[in-house]
Design a protein that fits this description.
About 35% of the residues lie in helices and about 25% in strands. It is an alpha+beta fold and about 290 residues long. The protein has three domains: about 45 residues, Uridine Diphospho-n-acetylenolpyruvylglucosamine Reductase, domain 2; about 120 residues, Uridine Diphospho-n-acetylenolpyruvylglucosamine Reductase, domain 3 (2-Layer Sandwich), CATH 3.30.465; about 110 residues, Enolase-like, domain 1. The strands form four sheets. It has a five-stranded antiparallel β-sheet with strand order 4-5-10-6-7. The protein has a four-stranded antiparallel β-sheet with strand order 11-12-13-14, sandwiched between helices. Helix 11 runs antiparallel to helix 12. The model has no long low-confidence stretch (mean pLDDT about 95).
């Protein structure tokens, strides 16, 4: 299939892109890597009257460490996350997750900002953003605002981004101390979106007691699902089978996955419990392996 007819613009600066977006409003659409938007347009599920191509805005392509946060430009390619020393050394959860995104060709073209704005509940980067407690810098013509991951994702393929705004920067906090991470997913085939994914980031103290933990699931709700009760359950505890059992009961009562042609509700619920348990255990063992101090 082919997309509907559209006008095409390629601004060279962010201010030019924002001015164009303000002018066209709901009739316009930002295109970055195009890995999500182009297929949707080809199927006529989206028919924007004009596309604003931001590939010429080189100022939005970077990965930098700034004190206790990693700042990533929205136009940074996913493959750059995969090979970045800054990411690998300071946020290995990202490195682990990004290798599971599509195929090499997908990552070479797809952008970090594009995946997050598309907001597929099974996608890896939105789940990582939620797990790490990240935030987003959003720009409009003359205005800039910051939104936490918990407030950014609204529902399926829908975010807090307004038609006149562009996601410009992603902030990932750097976790310190004896930290562990894990990202696990089950997909029908390599490169497919996950049926269910689980991500965990935690820290432990000198006695291997959990100090801080964030657990999140993808593919079980309309947005990445943060298991908010995990912190209260696990804080100050050494991981044990009884704690894992309590956690799986929390998951059982909290999520409402849907059935589709790829997996039933029952299977997704089962995967959610198994993957969460495994990711928590893996992250905990990795944290215990870190030297204290």
């Amino acid at each position: 299939m082919k997309p509907a007819k559209f006008d095409y613009y390629r601004p060279e600066t962010l201010s030019e892109a924002l001015s164009l977006l303000e002018e066209v409003g709901f009739d316009g659409k930002i295109i970055a890597g195009g890995q999500s938007l182009v297929p949707i347009m080809n199927m006529r599920l989206a028919t924007p009257e004009c596309l604003i191509d931001i590939n010429g805005i080189n100022d939005l392509d970077y990965i930098v460490k700034d004190v206790d946060v990693i700042k990533i430009g929205a136009m940074t390619r996913q493959s750059e996350l995969e090979t970045s020393d800054i990411i690998r050394q300071n946020s290995p959860l990202v490195s682990e997750a990004v290798r599971l995104i599509g195929h090499v060709q997908t990552r070479n073209r797809g952008t970090v900002g594009g995946s997050i704005v598309h907001a597929d509940p099974s996608a890896e980067l939105p789940l990582v953003l939620m797990t790490l407690g990240g935030s987003l810098k959003i720009s409009a013509n003359g205005e800039v605002r910051s939104v936490n991951a918990e407030d950014f994702f609204i529902t399926y393929l829908t975010t807090d981004l307004l038609p006149s705004e562009i996601l410009t920067e992603i902030h990932l906090p750097i976790w310190h101390g004896r930290k562990g991470h894990s990202f696990l997913e089950i997909a029908r085939r390599h490169g497919d979106f996950a049926l269910v994914a689980a991500a965990c980031q935690l820290t432990v103290d000198a006695q291997d007691r959990i100090e801080k933990v964030r657990l999140a699931l993808g593919g079980v709700e309309a947005i990445p699902f943060l298991i908010e009760d995990a912190q209260d359950l696990l804080n100050g505890e050494r991981l044990s089978d009884s704690l894992i059992d309590k956690l799986t009961k929390i998951i059982e009562e909290s999520i409402e996955p849907e059935s589709d042609l790829h997996a039933s509700e029952e299977y997704r619920r089962h995967l959610a419990k198994v993957l969460t348990s495994r990711s928590l255990q893996q992250a905990y063992e990795r944290a215990k392996g870190e030297q204290y101090g």
